[in-house]
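User:
I would dearly like some help making sense of a protein record. Take your time, and here it is.
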Amino acid sequence: MSAVWPHVLNLAPHAAFGTEGFLSSVTNTVLSTWIFVGIVIILGIILRFAVSKKEWFVYTTGFLIVKQLKFFFGPLLWHNLPLSKTLWFVGGTFLYILGANLYSLWLDWILAFSPASWHDYLRPINADINTTLGMAALMVLISHIIMVRYRGFFWYIGHFLFHFQGHSFIEKCISVVVGWLHLVGEGVRVLALSLRLFGNIFAWVVLIWVMIWLSGLISIGSIPIGSLMVIPFYFLEMFVGFIQAMVFSLLVSMYFAEASEHAAH
């Protein structure tokens, strides 16, 4: 293994096919996402074929996955929201982020030993703030749609902009300010969701590449014995990817549940 200092991942993605022309808007993150989606589609076709053939392993695995998702997210969702209409979305969000994180870990391994030019074409998906920010904004937007669905549009506008309620005039004025703070808090939710996921995935990319460089400095003769030092970090980052997918989807389910709880008050 070479001890050359590794390529440092930039905060901003690169244009994969240059800055001019029809494909100038395609970044290395977008290209990586397209490849990941293609893999998911292929796996979906394979699983659909396996289901049509009534493979018992596919049935059993799918049943266990759905059972665990229902056990984990069910207590938050089923009080006011129909579980059959929300579990698939929240559970799908968890599986998508987990799959993207594991796929990104695979990309880390490829990019660490690939030519420098490859970094202009491929990038771990959630190591891009644009990706995580877009997902977080979408989730918060859906929670607002749920709130409008349960309480109505005019209550929704009044709750955030002019929540003039209370026993006295002072309390009513305070309620209006609190409503404005709630509106600011929704923006904070978007930032919290996006920055948490982005920060952890970006940090793991830097950590793994630095550890690969450090391990390249350790060898016995021509044997790069230091390469074994990187293996535990890959397992650690697999755990981190799972935790971040769980935290993101858990917070999303809490936002959905909170939006629907207004109907009970």
